[in-house]
Amino acid sequence: QVQLVESGGGLVQPGGSLRLSCAASGSGFSIYAMGWYRQAPGKQRESVATTTSGGRPNYADSVKGRFTIPTDNTNNTVVLQMSSLKPEDTAVYYCTAEIVVAGGGPDEYWGQGAQVTVSS
User: Fold this and answer.
1) How far apart are CA 35 and CA 22, in angstroms?
2) Which residues of 30-63 are buried (b: 16+ CB within 10 A; e: fewer)?
3) pLDDT at position 72 over 70
4) For the chain, what is the total number of helices (H) and then of strands (E)?
5) Which of 2, 36, 60, 117 has its CA 20 to 30 A from that of 43?
6) CA–CA separation, 47 and 103 (whole Å)
7) DSSP letters along 66-116, please?
8) Where is 52: in which H helix or E strand?
9) Could you read off the pLDDT of 77-105 as tens digits, one per residue?
């Protein structure tokens, strides 16, 4: 079975930077699309950034110019580079992927979540 494993969360000061990674493990699968969502306490989960294979990333207005999905990611890993972080960026960040296994239809997979805390 396919798993998504996240790494890179932590505590950072306002204005700082943080890098999140999401790696898909398993065999016999292809990734159609990947993205990042976040959920703050008491808030609904919201989309942060999404991308498709060979496509251009799309970013939420709240993070444009600050968050980046590098274009040189491998086909089984997606990175979220965060800079100029603000306290309102504090949330649990989840990666998600639309994956096709063994020629079947696409299925949604989610990472375990990574806590990002922006505070002095």
Assistant:
1) 9
2) ebebbbbbbeeeeeeeeebbbbeeeeebebeeeb
3) no
4) 0, 11
5) 2
6) 28
7) TEE--TT--TTEEEEEE-S--GGG-EEEEEEEEEEETT--EEEEE---EEE
8) strand 46-52
9) 889 999 999 999 999 999 999 999 887 88
